[in-house]
Amino acid sequence: MKAVIQRVNEATLSVDGEQVAAIGRGLVVYVGIEQTDAEPDVIAMCKKISAMRIFSDDAGKMNLSVCDIGGEVLMVSNFTLCADISHGNRPSFSFAMRPAIQASQMFDYCVNVMRDLLREVGLSDNVKCGIFGADMRIDQSNDGPVTIIYQ
Questions:
Q1: What are phi and psi of 9, to 5 degrees?
Q2: Hey, what CATH class is 2-150 in?
Q3: What is the DSSP string of 80-147?
Q4: Portion of the chain with pLDDT greater than 70, in percent
Q5: Does the pTM of the predicted model rise above 0.85?
């Protein structure tokens, strides 16, 4: 399981010109699900992301999590994170979870786990997501920029 986590001031996600999701201050999380990933991998990743202290406290130190600041999370499925570019110039996606229905279910599980974790601090409505398999346009205002890669 791979994820690219970006701290943002705001982000919107659109499909076919129609806005599907929008968040304010928080995290945009691009999620790549691989063939070997299972539910415990999802839980571990979501726990790590929800607790990561990458927001500044009053002293300007990255010491607060998205939960601490009452932030929002936009989760976006992104199979291209699973690309293997070690041979040739055309990425291979052989590590990405297949069939698509299985990957879609795992992504939905990931979103639900994140919602459950944020629900514990009263923020379950703060988790939004894109549409699995859709051609999405994401506009985001990066903060920092702060970008973390989870592998």
A1: -85, -30
A2: alpha beta
A3: GGG-B-SSSSSPB-TTB-SSHHHHHHHHHHHHHHHHHHHHTTT-GGGEEE--TTS-EEEEEEEEEEEE
A4: 100
A5: yes
Q: What is the pLDDT of residues 119-130, one digit of tens each?
A: 999 998 999 999
- Classify burial at 23, counting beta carbons within 10 Å of its beta carbon; exposed 0-12, middle 13-18, buried 19 or more: buried
Task: Identify whether the C-beta of residue 7 lies closer than 8 Å to the C-beta of residue 145.
Answer: yes
CA distance 46 to 120: 13
Q: Other C-beta atoms within 10 Å of 35: how many?
A: 12
Amino acid identity of residue 56, one-letter, is S
Identify the pLDDT of residue 54: 97
Three-state DSSP class for residue 48: helix
Contact 72, 24 (CB under 8 A): yes
Are 78 and 89 spatial neighbours (Cβ–Cβ below 8 Å)? no
